[in-house]
Amino acid sequence: MAFRRMAVSIAAAALALGTARAESPLQGEWVDLTHTLDETSVFWPTAKAFHHDAESFGQTEGGYFYSAYNIRTSEHGGTHLDAPIHFAEGAQTADEVPLDRLIGPAAVIDVTEASGSDRDYRFTAQDVLDWEARHGEIAPGAIVLFRTGFSKFWPDREAYMGTAERGAEAVAQLHFPGLSEAAARLLKERDVAAVGLDTPSLDYGQSKDFIAHRVLLGAQIPGFENVTNLDRLPEWGASVIALPAKIGKGSGAPLRIVALLPKEE
């Protein structure tokens, strides 16, 4: 009898677990929007490259395997967060960015055609309005992601950034798309949670004033840069979770960003 009660209890628990899983809001297809962070990762020309150095790797004297590494990295390389303080004095640091700016519905704006014909293309307010004509006005709290198609060039620095050179002199040679001031100001008006894209910077490569950064980060709207796999997301309906390393007083941080696709009816 005790065995039967135990079997019934296990069956009931399994059924409850199955029901809970079926009803979970996290069920569906997940898409990783993050580039692997390693020695081939693309970093800003003035930033120090990523290093991943083995401290221990192999069998120990105790007879078990053990591995541990030391890493050295810039905040702004690979897929990463731009915290508001990156361009706004006194604004939120990486550890202070609220979770509701890192989790939300994704509005994916496709600018691949224009970006493909002009490496220095700046996304316009009209690009945003065209998206809204199809889906309605972007809701407050949405995470806006611009898809240029440039992630296909990763990690070829010259193809992705416009130059493989490093150092301060290389900044003038950068050529890739980014936001115009008008687009940034419109998204600020929409009160979006965050803005991301599949290029190295919110501003286009030839920017000298970094106005998109200044507008968005000055409004406490963080940026997600060097995102990938945006071609796998619909224009509307996916949900995004973008969790950075919680670096105290950081101006940015490595980012793991994923999307949950909407369930097919």
Describe the structure.
This protein is an alpha/beta fold. It contains six helices and twelve strands. The protein has helices at residues 2-23, 112-117, 125-135, 157-161, 181-189, 211-218, and strands at 30-32, 51-59, 65-72, 80-82, 103-110, 122-123, 143-147, 178-179, 194-197, 223-225, 236-244, 252-260. The strands form three sheets. It has a seven-stranded mixed β-barrel. A hairpin with a 7-residue loop joins strand 11 and strand 12 (252-260). Helix 5 runs parallel beside helix 6. The longest helix is centred in the first third of the chain and has 22 residues, at 2-23. The chain is globular, with a radius of gyration of 22 Å. It starts with a helix and ends in a 5-residue tail after the last strand. Mean pLDDT is 93; it is low at 1-17.
